[in-house]
Structure formats: structure tokens, C-alpha cells
Amino acid sequence: MVVMWMVTGGAGYIGAHVVQAFLDEGMAVVVLDDLSSGHAEFVPEGVPLVRGSILDTPLVEAALREHGVDGVVHLAGFKYAGVSVQRPLHTYAQNVTGTAHLLEAMDAAGVRRIVFSSSAAVYGTPDVDLVTERTPTAPESPYGESKLIGEWLLRDAARATADDDAPLRHTSLRYFNVVGSGRPDLYDSSPHNLFPLVIEALLAGRTPRINGTDYPTPDGTCVRDYVHVADLARSHVVAARALEAGTSLEPVYNLGSGDGVSVREIMTTMADVTGIAFEPDVAPRRPGDPARIVASGELAARDLDWRMRHSLTEMARSAWEARRQA
């Protein structure tokens, strides 16, 4: 029997890599995307694309039924922490209301498996050097808050179906900066993420900039987890297969590097990879940006085959080459 998975947001940068990871494992997939930030050309030939919003419950339910979907990988949403401070209502509508509508459609269609794309932004600025799944959540932006609420929605929906013959089974994957490219035609087109901002500036002959150099970090710039998108996509597939098999999973996993990289280090690596020497401009801090967040990936390594398979140089080079070929 063929098991079909729906990837919401599957025409986006991360979503398209998840779709490709499913195909590489011989798994069937359908994409749901409103193309507000995704690209139809990112969806591989032969993969059905349902154009629509997760807020449209009847459309989502119809798509789930029509394609015989057995599980959902939920990546659709508004993903920009800084911008969410200026657009909180939009963020909540897309990420909270949208997830609630998706769960409603899944329940109506009898779909009881979901892998949720969460975020390390749920931790805010933790007072520990290395975040684990037991670190208290304290989001500092509407985006981080909306992702935490999304996790709660899954938890509560699972509780409500706990006594059913087929209860909702779920897990949430928390991660922060996803970079690089696993395919030469897939690139990050976000107007807010660091890698594409640096790359677009260099391609246009402009000087990339750093937002804030006065953070309490070794070089004054933000420190983050940077993980390769293909590594990330692989763990989504492993999580989906575990849910299929009835394997017990934790409610949340950090897909963390365990070793942070600063924004200034990213700039240096980009200059090395591109061969374009530059000294970045300095701009003020962005609201909603924590100084440091680095997560352990130990639990995910145990259960989801998670590990860092790419170096920072490989991440930067693959991102640069994919964008240049676009």
C-alpha cells in the first residue's frame, strides 16, 4: 500500500527540500502551497501541487481526501521573527489560525499523523550555553509565540483523540537558521534571512550588512545554529516514517548543531567562498533577535538520524552556487 504525505509549504525553500527528501526515499508526496513566498517551479515534475492556503479548511480537507493523504509535514507559515514584531496579527493568523484550520481539516479527513516545523525561536534568549528540549520556553517575538502555540495545538488535538482507534500522532522539530542548498535549482529567496541577504547584496555589487555589533557575544554579533537544509529535510522524512511505523517519538526535538556561529563568521566565510572581499556595513539591531541561541541535537541524533553532514564552508558554497544558477 502506498503511503501519501502532504507537505504544506512544499513549494518553499525548506519545503521543496523536504519534498525532494521524500522522493529520494521512494515515498509519495503532494504539495499544498499558496505560493505567497514559494515557487511553483520548485515542485518536482510529477508531484501534485494544490495551490491554496491552510486557512481554507474545505480546500485542505478536499485535497487530503482526493490524494488519499496519510500524514502531513506542516511547514506552511509566516517565518520571519523580526517582521512578526511589526505584523503580529498576520503572524498569528498564518501560524496559529492556519495550524488550527489544518488540524480541523485533517480530523475531518481522518488523517492522524503530523510532523510540525517549529522553531528554536520558542526559547527566546535562553540563559544557558546549550539549549535542550527541557530548556524553558520564553519566546520574544510573535513568530516564536505562534510556533509554541502551534506545538500546543498538536498536543491538545492529540489528547482529544487519545482514546480513538487512530489517535493523532505528532512530533515538532525546532530549528533556527536553515541554509545551503541540496539541489542546484533550489535556493533561499527570503528577503529577511541572512544568507540570501548577503548573497543578493554581493550579486548586486552592494556591501552586506550586520544588524547589531553590540550583543553580549565574543565578537558582538548574534550567534546562531546554522544547519544545512538537506540534513534538516532528511530528519523530517525519518520522523514521518517513524510515525507511519508507530514508533514512539518525543513531542519535540531540537535540530541543533551544538556549536554556534556568529554573523561576522558568516560574513568571513561568504567572502572566502565567493572570492569577493568586503567589510560589512553595520546597522542597528533588529527587534526580536536574541543574542545567542545554540541547541543540542542529541535527542534527534538518537531518534531521527540527525547529524551535521555539512561544514559551514559547504553550506555557504552550496547557497552561493544555487543562487548564481537561478
UniProtKB/TrEMBL annotation:
GO terms for molecular function: UDP-glucose 4-epimerase activity. Pathway: Carbohydrate metabolism; galactose metabolism. Gene3D superfamilies: NAD(P)-binding Rossmann-like Domain, UDP-galactose 4-epimerase, domain 1. It catalyses: UDP-alpha-D-glucose = UDP-alpha-D-galactose. The keyword Transmembrane helix does not apply. Its cofactor is NAD(+). Its EC number is 5.1.3.2. GO terms for biological process: galactose catabolic process via UDP-galactose, Leloir pathway. Residues 6-256 form the NAD-dependent epimerase/dehydratase domain. The keyword Nucleus does not apply. Keywords: Carbohydrate metabolism, Isomerase, NAD. It comes from the Bacteria. InterPro entries: Epimerase_deHydtase, NAD(P)-bd_dom_sf, UDP_G4E. It holds the Pfam family Epimerase. Belongs to the NAD(P)-dependent epimerase/dehydratase family. PANTHER family: UDP-ARABINOSE 4-EPIMERASE 1, UDP-GLUCOSE 4-EPIMERASE. NCBIfam families: galE (TIGR01179). This is UDP-glucose 4-epimerase. It comes from Cellulomonas carbonis T26.
